[in-house]
Amino acid sequence: MRTPSWSGLSAFQTWLLGWWLAATLASVAQTSAPVTSPQPRNIVLMLADDLGARDLVCDGADLHETPRIDQLAREGMRFTQAYAMSVCSPTRAALLTGRHAARLRLTTWREASLNRESDAAKNPRLLLPPVTGFDLPTDVPNLAQVMRSTGRLTFQVGKWHLGDAAHAPERYGFDVQIGGTHWGAPATFFHPFRGPFGASGEFRYVPGLGLGQPGDYLTDRITDEAIHLMDQAGERPFFLSLCFHNPHTPIEGKPELVAHYRDRLNPGLRHQNPEYAAMIRTLDENVGRVLDALDRRNLRSQTLVIFTSDNGGYTNHFRGQRVTDNGPLRSGKGSLYEGGIRVPLIVRFPGLTVPSTECSEPVLCTDLFPTLAELAGAPTETQAAGLDGMSLVPLLGGPGGRLQREALFFHFPHYYSTTTPVSAVRARDWKLLEYHEDHRVELYRLTDDPGETRDIAGSHPAEAKRLRRLLHDWYGVVDAQMPLPNPAMQR
Questions:
Q1: Quick check: 182 and 160 in contact, CB under 8 A?
Q2: Cα angle vertex 41, ends 396, 58, to 5°?
Q3: Residue pLDDT, tens place only, 185-229
Q4: Is the dihedral of CA 60, 64, 67, 73 positive or negative?
Q5: Which of 145, 325, 358, 370 has the CB geometry, 3.0–4.6 Å to 173, for a possible disulfide?
C-alpha cells in the first residue's frame, strides 16, 4: 500500500493523521490496558438557546413543566455544575471545536462583532471591545469533520449563527443542514417564520422548511426535519446536531400553553412569565419527540444523547416582562456570574451512563468535542489535537469522578446589559472575576455562597492573588484579546 504524501493532504486530513499517529504512539508507550467504553452507533446533540440552569424542573424550576427532559435526566447523568460561555456564538464555536472562544477570537455573538464600531459610537464607554471574529474559522478541525471521518452522516438542523453563506454548516463538514442562518434569532416562531426583527426592522427568515401552514410553530417544524433525517439515514450511523431556538427571544409561546401557565401563576413562584414557560414546554415536548423517534426505530441502546444550553438564562425584560429568573444563581446571560454561564447538561448512553446519577464536577462546553470524539471511535489524544476541553468519559460511568484540571476560564471583553468587560476563573471551590474597566477583582467561595452574594477578596488576599495570577497566565496561553481604553473617554 502506498504511503500518502503529507503535501497532498488537506489541512484537516493532515491534522487527523497527526492526531492518529500521536494516539497510536501513546498507546504503544503505555503498559496498562487502554480504557474501553461502549461505542454509540449514533450521536444526538440537542442544544437549547438561552435556557437557564434553573429553568428545568429537575434543576429546580417551579412554574415550568419539563417531564420529558426530566425523564432523560433520570435515564442518564445530570451534570449539576456545567458551564458554557456567557453568550451564544462563542459557546457554539467552542462546542464544535473543543477550543475556548478566547483562543478562537470569537468572544461575542456575530451581530455584536459586526456592529462593534457603530455600537461604540452610540454608547461611548470607558473601553473599546476588541475586534473579534464573526465566522467560525475554517482552518480549525470541528466535530462534523471528526464524525464524518468515522463514517457517520452529519446533520445540522436549526440555529447556526456562526457565519454567512460562505461559512454555512456545509463548509464545516455537515452533509445536510436545514434552517440555519447567520442570525441569532428568528423574527417569529410562528409560520411563515419571517418578518421584521427588533427595533431596526431587519427582515429575517428561516430557510428550508417548505410551505407549511398557518399555526405551525418553528420548534415543531425543526424537529420534524430532524426526525425525517434520522429516518432517512436508515441503517447508516449518524451525528445529529439539533439546535433549537427556544427559549430565545422573541418570547412567543403557543396560545393554549400560554393560557395554561397564566392560570398556574401565583406570587410565590420564582418564575413568573407564562409565555416563557410555554416556550420551555414546547422545547420539552420536542426533545421527547426525538427520544420517541429513537425508540420507534429501536435505536435507544445504540445512541448517545446529550442535551444542554448555550448560555445562562436571559434575565432582561421582553415586552415589559422579565424573561426568567436564575435564582439562587446571580445575574444572567452575558454576565460571568453563575447565572450567566451555568447551564443544564444531561448525557444518556445505555451501557455507559448509570440511570438517575448526578455529577458535581465542574465541566465546560469545550469538553464535548473530546468526549464525543472518543466515544465515536476517533483518536482521542487531546494534547496532540491542541484542545482546551477534556473528555468527560471518565465521569460518565458514575458519580464521584474528577478531572485532572486545575481551573475553568471565562472571557467576555465586551459590554452587555448585565456586565462590563470581565474575565473569570473557577478553581474548584473558588471563583474570581476581574473587571477590566478598573481592574478590580471579586472573589467567591461557591461551596458556601453559590449565589455570589459575598465578595471575600478583601479577607482572602492570598487566594485572590493566586487566582488572579492563574487567570493572567491563561490570558497568555490563549492569547486573549483585551478591551482598549476609549480615546473619546480620556479627554
A1: yes
A2: 40
A3: 999 999 999 999 988 899 999 999 999 999 999 999 999 999 999
A4: negative
A5: 145
Q: Which helix (H) or strand (E) holds 154?
A: strand 153-158
DSSP for 446-477, written as a single string: TTT-TT-----TTT-HHHHHHHHHHHHHHHHH
User: Cα(146)–Cα(268) distance, rounded to whole angstroms?
Assistant: 48
Whole-model pTM? 0.92
Determine the Cα–Cα distance for residues 419 and 335; give it in Å rounded to an integer: 5
Q: Per the domain annotation, does 19 fall within a domain? A: no
Q: Clarify whether residues 356 and 426 are in a common domain.
A: no
More confident residue, 465 or 36: 465
354 & 476 share domain? no
- 71: buried, middle or exposed (CB in 10 Å: 19+, 13-18, 0-12)? middle
DSSP class of residue 121 equals H
Q: Residue 460 sits in a domain of what CATH number?
A: 3.30.1120.10
For 199, residues 6+ apart whose C-beta sits below 8 A from its C-beta are none
**Mean pLDDT throughout 5-17?**
45
Q: What is the DSSP letter of 300?
A: G
H helices present in 85-195, as ranges: 88-97, 101-104, 110-114, 116-122, 143-149
Q: Lowest mean pLDDT of 117-126, 341-350, 385-394, name the range.
A: 117-126
Q: How many CB atoms lie within 10 A of CB 486?
A: 14
Cβ atoms within 10 Å, residue 42:
21
